[in-house]
Design goal:
The chain has 90 residues and is mostly helical. The protein has three helices and no strands.
Length: 90
């Protein structure tokens, strides 16, 4: 059974692969663009549609930010492990 650190590194690897994938990037960019267009093209009195569009945009940002955070956690763990390994070799 993998340790928690191993699970975090694996999650970071998977998140990194997803973030670097052209299909993922393309889909996220398309969805962000659609949310933006909906937001700016709503009538001033259509507050509900604008708020929905903004919430949709924020959800996309949260997904991407969560993936980036997993990559940062992985990088921190690997950096710490590499530091520990270099100290052992001295």
């Amino acid at each position: 059974m993998p340790t928690q650190e191993e699970q975090l590194v694996t999650a970071g690897d998977e998140a990194d692969a997803l973030l670097k994938g052209s299909a993922f990037t393309s889909v996220v960019n398309d969805l962000v663009e659609r949310a933006f267009q909906t937001f700016v093209n709503t009538a001033p009195e259509d507050k509900e549609k604008r708020e929905y569009s903004y919430s949709h945009y924020r959800a996309l940002v949260d997904v991407v930010d969560t993936l980036k955070q997993r990559v940062q956690v992985r990088d921190s763990i690997l950096e710490q492990q590499n530091g520990d390994n270099s100290q052992e070799e001295q």
